[in-house]
Description:
Layout: E1 2-6, H1 11-23, E2 28-33, H2 41-44, E3 49-53, H3 59-66, E4 72-75, H4 94-108, E5 113-119, H5 131-143, H6 145-160, E6 166-172, E7 174-176, E8 183-186, E9 196-198, H7 199-212, E10 221-224
Parallel strand pairs: 1-2, 1-4, 2-3, 4-5, 5-6, 7-9
Antiparallel strand pairs: 8-10
Helix pairs in contact: 1-7, 3-4, 4-6, 5-6
Amino acid sequence: MRFLILGATGISGVLLVRKALEIYPDATVIIFARSPNKIPEDLRNNGSLTIVQGTLDDLDELEAAVQLGIDVVLSALGPVVSPTGRTNHPTNTPIATFYGHLIDLLHKYNVKRFISLSTASVTDPNDKPSWKYAAIVRAVRSVAYPAYADIVAMGEVIRSKGQDLDYTLVRVPFLTNAKSEGVYAGHIGDGKIGVILSRKAFAAFSVGEIGNRQWVKGAPMISNA
């Protein structure tokens, strides 16, 4: 198994790398990152890792990473929003634009599986009304519109341009650093989804979905069980 992991310098991304190596100890992990020095030293020194340095605009470097021969893309990329709702995220949906270029490369090199972080701002036909989630999305849209717009655009480009991919949009609520990996996966308004999820649970669910394939072309909302 060969993974391309995006967003691997953030907390959730580091956990994705660790969980991928835990579940698939013989795997090769290719990391595409702007600042490789932010990856923990023990991972940088791990012989199973290949690091390709590049930004969202470095498409030649991105292609160099994809053409190393990958089976699955795992992404923890997402806008950074502070606990107060503040964000310096650009207004031109840079992650969604990057995803569009990435999907072109996945088609070119015949890579089918793409599992990406998403949020409740991306809707699903199976969702039901939920005043809690409606309030959360409304607040994000109001105080951090550039981040909201990029998340929505990310979902749109994966579903449209990547409609031939085996994609999964892993929608997450408020993320914590708790140790629990227990997850409930469903849809907004189903009476079981909560509003808290540990980053470890996000990583465990995302890597687990590679083998489970329960949500191919789906957008589960997940929370701690």
